[in-house]
Specification:
Elements (H helix, E strand, L loop, with lengths): L8 H23 L1 H10 L3 H33 L2 H19 L7 H24 L1 H4 L5 H28 L14 H4 L1 H19 L14 H14 L5 H32 L3 H29 L1 H21 L15 H10 L3 H9 L2 H9 L8 H15 L17 H8 L4 H15 L10 H28 L5 H13 L4 H13 L2 H5 L1 H13 L4 H8 L3
Helix pairs in contact: 1-2, 1-5, 1-7, 1-9, 2-3, 3-5, 3-10, 3-21, 4-5, 4-9, 5-21, 7-9, 7-12, 7-20, 11-19, 11-20, 11-21, 11-22, 11-24, 12-13, 12-20, 13-20, 13-24, 14-15, 16-17, 18-19
Length: 549
Amino acid sequence: MGATRKNDRLAVFSWSLYDFANSAFTTLVVTFIFATYFTEVVAENTTVGTTLWSRGVTLTAIVVALLSPFLGAISDRGGYRKLLLLMMTVITILGSTLLFGILPGQTTKALFIFVIANIAYELGCVFYNAFLPDICSQDRIGRVSGYGWSFGYFGGLLALVIALVGFVSPENPWFGISKENFENIRATNLIVAVWFLVFSIPIFLWVKEDKSRVAAKGEKILAAGLKQLVDTFREIKRYKQIVRFLFTHLVYNDGLITIFAFGGIYAVGTFYFSDTEIIVFGIILNITAGLGAFVLGFLDDKLGGKKTIQISLIGLMLASLLAVFAPNGSSTLTGDDLRNPAELAGTLKVHANSQTTYVYNQLAPATRELLDEYDGAGPLSESLQDALILDLNRMIQSDDFHEAETFSTMTLRNKTRELLDSKPQKEDLHRLNRYLLEDLFPDGIQRFFPLLFWIAGMIIGIFSGPNQSASRSLMGRIVPPDKENEFYGFFAFSGKATAFMGPFLLGSLTSLFDSQRVGVSVVILFFVIGSILMVFVDEEEGIRVAGRE
């Protein structure tokens, strides 16, 4: 079978559609719905579930890192790229289907199926990526890679919306699905299976594999694949630009992995995001990342992959700095936090219910005296406003105030009660104080909106898509035509080998300095080091050595 004609529109669209297809698995299974179902329902408790899930993801990374270069070499020598892609796609679809049957308590079965499906998904990406330099010319490889990434982001977003609207949120889920035994939640895995099956068909129909460089007939493919790997290591000096790039990718990709893994946690812990805000935040990130990958793909073709990656890293650095230093609405009250000081004072003066009575009794005698003298109309005196702020700050930061039984008769949101019931540690008190203030004085305390953090998140989205897209396209420019699968296997390896470093350093710094901000700042270091290392990657030499001039 001959290779796909370069820049064939149907082939490019079919290839991009595969990213649209497989994104449902990462969005619904790995990141959002099934992951949450496993940690909160299937496992014994959330702590155990989170630990087991992280081990499953780690095991996937290890297996993929070890297998991908070898399977890539076998694919190169045997002409098995499309066959292996088909196998991995089928295994992922079957795994997603089997996850529908996972009931509470079946942790071992769930993890086994998930890990197998996740390994197949990740390995499939190796062979999918390797098609990129075959379906388009070198002057269009950036935009085509961008098409794929943007299709993927929008595909994941659309699958998530359908799952939420049709199965997770409604009182009566679609297709007669029941809510008993979490059937509506488990049914989202069937969405993944059908989605992946339908939208992956075009790549197998209209993207052809170039088999002109396969091993001679009679040659043992396993031995040939192993020999190709050995030869690659022997000739490593010849591929020094690829080695430099893969090492650089390993560094800055750790920063991206850390952002994706802890962005939501940081938004909740430092900026008091609600569950709804987290979902909206995730949707906005997907939209901006998809748009960024699509638009900057054209810049990639004009400037080259190296410069596009450098631009994206600068954008990610600035966005991360903004996220680290963005104000979060301190748990210590100031005059700016009082939406209507007169209304707050009037509510406390009447203290018609147990909630306001409790707060009134916590005020200092001098403050109560000033409050009793207030006529309930007009602006507060400066002395009364200062006294109220001082007393409220003292109250919410006292140890007694955080005892859950104190609030047994008060109207609090579920998220506030959950945080109280969890006996919050020191790092949680900041968030709890803000929740309590908003609950106790819904009309008196200004709801904080972290505008700068939202802007930082959108900038991260805009540049994270192009960063990933340009990384893939740069690899396609400098990889030798006869070793595409093998080197994209190494590309997968560089994305997984040290994926634990960012989360480990973030957690360690957060614990050491008792600050999420300090912990999150570690991603800036990864981007800075990656940007410096990128200077030493010579894209033109890599293209010349690969014979793709």
